[in-house]
TrEMBL record, chain B:
This is Trafficking protein particle complex subunit 2-like protein. It is found in: Cytoplasm, Perinuclear region; Endoplasmic reticulum; Golgi apparatus. Component of the multisubunit TRAPP (transport protein particle) complex, which includes at least TRAPPC2, TRAPPC2L, TRAPPC3, TRAPPC3L, TRAPPC4, TRAPPC5, TRAPPC8, TRAPPC9, TRAPPC10, TRAPPC11 and TRAPPC12. Interacts with the heterodimer TRAPPC3-TRAPPC6A. Belongs to the TRAPP small subunits family. Sedlin subfamily. It holds the Pfam family Sedlin_N. InterPro entries: Longin-like_dom_sf, Sedlin, TRAPPC2L. The lineage of its organism: Eukaryota, Metazoa, Chordata, Craniata, Vertebrata. The keyword Cell cycle does not apply. One of its GO terms (cellular component) is endoplasmic reticulum. May play a role in vesicular transport from endoplasmic reticulum to Golgi. Its main location: cytoplasm.
Length: 522, 139
């Protein structure tokens, strides 16, 4: 009954459409069966797909023509192929492990079994090394995941950000699937329907495309292993996913989703970078533990947590995940390159909006560092006004950042060269004016540093009395501020460029207006 | 318990129209088509006020002896028309409004799909499922 194609697909390169001619005919037969399913009550759903391979022979061969997407799952093929290839809302795959025995039985025992089976299959997922999972065509293996992530990065360097709809459309169109199919795949994978794909959504979409090209018919609903929550392990298990998926995407407010996506993306970045976890199950559990440790307010974690402890692997993995969570989230944050600013996706929001926040952050820090330290403008010839001084400091801040740790060593010798300054005030000046004085030290004209330092000595005679501990603390704080300043200064320069462009446009428009005006008057 | 649901584009051609197959579908198509006149009339009547003040839900467009037709227009002049069985008196205005809201949300989800070109027929399965749920919910 099962005619299997035993060719196994590797995912080093985008797979070509496999057996394309077969796809269309059984797509239609499946659509008919889907419609049948739709018309039936939900209670009968579990019954109808399992009976369809038996009841409608024409549709059964297409089920069995699968090319397995990952290798080594021959065990499961028997149960998988009995199941309807497109699990309706993910319930069927859960039925299928027991489906071989109960496939023909009535709807009611199936339903009861289904509820039991779900818990069993949840445990089974946790325990198995992803080899017996009924959704094996829909599971993403590690190598697939790596490939998808690399593709994502080629489209969007920031893994925690979105791919816009048009970019994704162009990319997925290259897969040469038909537009309606791509449209359907998008519909399945874009869980929050925002017209953009996050990393897990992108992985799900890519996986669906790959599956489709290998001959798997597209599922009716997003399989549980492809849901973004699963892929980031916020929402671990399929038991809820089927009912949850629809209600979840509808009921969750978008901002809450955005928040979840934020956290999920950070955990996903962390997971991909840090986790050597061999199986999706273990990562799922790790992420699940992470999510709970992150105090997700979602109640759905609760039913899954009892299932998780049954797995010793997950228990072992959990402390590991927790230890990772604290450090790697910070790393993920830093990877976002905006440590001091809340919004993790500068590309999504208008750059100006984010810059406004940054300006507010930037400005208080600037006067704090510069107010007591900046001498009157004439004393600083290279910085006649603050804006230009920002730009100058910005140019020098990047090299500063690299040398920030060694700033103490570097700035003091040049200052000693400047005989102008008094010896006791040098370390303090270095502390208090890291930007100005280190930039000055880096400037070819050290004489500039002289008058500056000399001017600063007077306002800070009392500073010399600070203890060394305070100096060190201030130095570290200063280094951090410098790093923040560097980032903000870069942003500032970019925004100023934008502002110039906008000014030019405005001028052009005003010119046009003036030219047109005399015409209208006439 | 809609008997027929239709999504009409701004240029007054149907993007999506589906009716319960019990009766002659052509009759429903005709009803929807005639309701477009009423929709345009309502839009133009409110059009003197600012567009923002115009409410999206148009309410009962016209009743026949068997059916009632309700209308909803979006800000992009896409019209949603729903034909409801008159025998179901339990359906109140709020319920119709909520149904239209769901329809509108589903429509915007379809719009968000980058593979959907505005002006194409709507072929989204999610949208189909939603419409189906709306049509069988009362039956």
């Amino acid at each position: 009954m099962m005619s299997k194609n035993d060719g196994e697909m590797r995912f080093g390169n985008p797979p070509e459409l496999h057996g394309s001619k077969v796809q269309i005919p059984y797509l239609t037969t499946e659509k008919n069966s889907f419609k049948r399913m739709d018309d039936e009550e939900k209670q009968q759903e579990t019954q109808s797909p399992t009976m369809s391979p038996l009841a409608s022979p024409p549709s059964s061969p297409p089920h069995y023509q699968r090319v397995p997407l990952s290798h080594g799952y021959s065990k499961l093929r028997s149960s998988t192929e009995q199941m309807h290839p497109a699990p309706y809302e993910g319930r069927q795959p859960l039925v299928q492990p027991e489906g071989s025995s109960s496939g023909v039985s009535g709807a009611k025992p199936l339903r009861h079994q289904a509820s039991l089976i779900r818990s069993f299959s949840v445990e089974r997922e946790l325990q198995d090394n992803s080899s017996n999972y009924p959704d094996e065509p829909w599971r993403i293996t590690e190598e697939q995941r790596e490939y998808y992530i690399n593709q994502f990065r080629s489209l969007q360097p920031d893994p925690s950000s979105f791919i816009s709809g048009s970019v994704a459309k162009n990319f997925f169109t290259k897969s040469k699937l038909s537009i309606p199919e791509l449209s359907y795949i998008w519909e399945l994978s874009d869980a929050d329907c925002d017209g953009a794909l996050t990393l897990p959504e992108f992985c799900a979409a890519f996986h669906l495309i790959v599956a489709r090209k290998n001959g798997y018919p597209l599922p009716e609903g997003l399989p549980p292993t492809l849901q973004p929550e699963y892929l980031q392990a916020a929402f671990p298990k399929p038991k809820w996913e089927c009912a949850l998926f629809d209600s979840y995407s509808e009921s969750m407010p978008t901002n809450q989703q955005a928040r979840d996506l934020n956290r999920m993306e950070k955990t996903s970045v962390k997971d991909m970078a840090d986790f050597p976890a061999p199986t999706q199950d273990v990562t799922g559990d790790d992420k699940q533990a992470l999510k709970s440790s992150l105090n997700e307010a979602l109640p759905k974690d609760a039913p899954e947590d009892p299932a998780a402890p049954k797995d010793s692997n997950s228990l072992k993995a959990r402390p590991r995940s927790r230890s990772y969570s604290s450090t790697s989230i910070e790393e993920a944050m830093k990877r976002g390159e905006d440590p001091p600013t809340p919004p993790p996706r500068p590309q999504k929001t208008h750059s100006r909006a984010s810059s406004l926040d940054l300006n507010k952050v930037f400005q208080p820090s600037v006067p704090a560092t510069k107010s007591g330290l900046l001498p009157p403008p004439p004393a600083l010839p290279p910085r006649p006004c603050p804006s230009q001084s920002e730009q100058v400091s910005e140019a020098e801040l990047p090299p500063q950042l690299n040398r920030a740790p060694s700033q103490a060593a570097e700035s003091s010798p040049p200052k000693k060269d400047v005989s102008y300054s008094q010896p006791p005030s040098k370390p303090i000046r270095r502390k208090l004016r890291p930007e100005n004085q280190s930039t000055e030290s880096q400037e070819p004209s050290t004489a500039v540093g002289g008058p500056a330092s000399g001017a600063t000595v007077k306002p800070h005679p009392t500073v010399q009395k600070q203890s060394s501990k305070q100096k060190k603390a201030i130095q570290t704080a200063i280094r951090k501020n410098k790093e923040a300043n560097a980032v903000l200064a870069r942003l500032n320069s970019e925004l100023q460029q934008q502002l110039k462009e906008v000014h030019q446009e405005r001028i052009a428009l005003e010119n046009q207006l003036e030219q047109l005006r005399p015409v209208t008057v006439l | 318990m809609a008997v027929c649901i239709a999504v009409i584009a701004k240029e007054n051609y149907p993007l999506y129209i589906r009716s319960t197959p019990m009766e002659n579908e052509l009759k429903f198509h005709y009803m929807v088509h005639t309701s477009l006149d009423v929709v345009d009339e309502k839009i133009s009547a409110m059009g003197k006020a600012l567009v923002d003040q115009r409410e999206l839900y148009l309410g009962l467009l016209y009743p026949t002896e068997d059916y009632k037709v309700y209308g909803f227009v979006t800000n992009s002049k896409v019209k949603l028309v729903m034909v409801v069985d008159s025998s179901n008196t339990a359906l109140r205005d709020n319920e119709i409004r909520s149904m239209f809201r769901k329809l509108h949300n589903s429509y915007t989800d379809v719009m968000c799909n980058p593979f959907y070109n505005p002006g194409d027929r709507i072929q989204s399965r999610a949208f189909d499922n939603m419409v189906t749920s709306m049509m069988i919910q009362v039956c």
